[in-house]
Amino acid sequence: MSYGMIATWRMACDGITKGTTDLANGGSAQTAIVAAIKMVEDYPFYKSVGYGGLPNEEGLVELDAAFMNGDNFDIGAVAGSRSVKNPIAVAEKLSHERFNSFLVGDGVAKYAIKEGFEIQNMLTERAKKTWENRLAEMRNSNLSPYDGHDTVGMVALDQNGSMACGTSSSGLFMKKEGRIGDSPLSGSGFYVDSEIGGATATGLGEDLMKGCLSYETVRLMGTGLQPQEAVNQAMQDFAKQLERRKGKCGAFSLVAMNNKGEWGVATNVEFSFAVATDQLAPTIYLAYPSEDGSYPKIEVASQEWLDAYQARITAPIQ
Ligand code: GLY
């Protein structure tokens, strides 16, 4: 039986490497998603997820995360979480609750403490320095403060045919206190149905949530489209609508996998993503948007690109 994981951004690769090793040994999609996203949340140099995530305009880290079980549609989500070490683990726990399965703000910490989850200060010195630098840049120029919202989103398929997905994000850099993006919103940031497939998104949450693009991708796969056709159609159709009706469309990138382990990606910006299946060793790809709305150009990330990425994310912040 096939198994696999697909995820947004290069940062997901170590997680899906571990996750697919577990899947190869018979592990569940649900467990693989939580373990893989925890790895991203715990790495302090990823500045858009978990510990080390960039703060809001008040200097407070507020994190969003969600988990969905594709077998029974159970969903758990947290938003504006300030002190939970692993928001994805709390989201997964919440997915088992019949009521109160989406918590925000202080309610997340209260629930997490009661359930025995680890609490910690999520603001690193590095993230604080980046925030201070951005404040200074904004004072000295007309720079838009809103830049950077690289959500990690993952879809997994296990050997029993079960699927799951999850997201985790610090959201838009310099967001308003209490702002919530698409990542914890079912249908927008994520969706999965084990009888069809799953999809997850990264990009400007305010625009992604207008089109419910993760749900739309899964719906299209359910009509018989291949993941690549489905995700491209969902994204391109909606991006055109937004451009026609509002004159602009934010950055959108989506990844999708069906319940056979086939996958696809759509994007309107340069975008990295990671895939591993029973047929494919963990691989980091770069996707480039097409001019004409056809499929993106996809290439394996070169060693030079990977080295430059690692140097960039770990470079000292002045
Ligand atoms: N896509 C993440 C956010 O907008 O918060």
From TrEMBL:
Pfam family, one: Asparaginase_2
Source species of the chain: Enterococcus lemanii
Lineage: Bacteria, Bacillati, Bacillota, Bacilli, Lactobacillales
Name the record gives this protein: N(4)-(Beta-N-acetylglucosaminyl)-L-asparaginase
CDD domains, sorted: Glycosylasparaginase
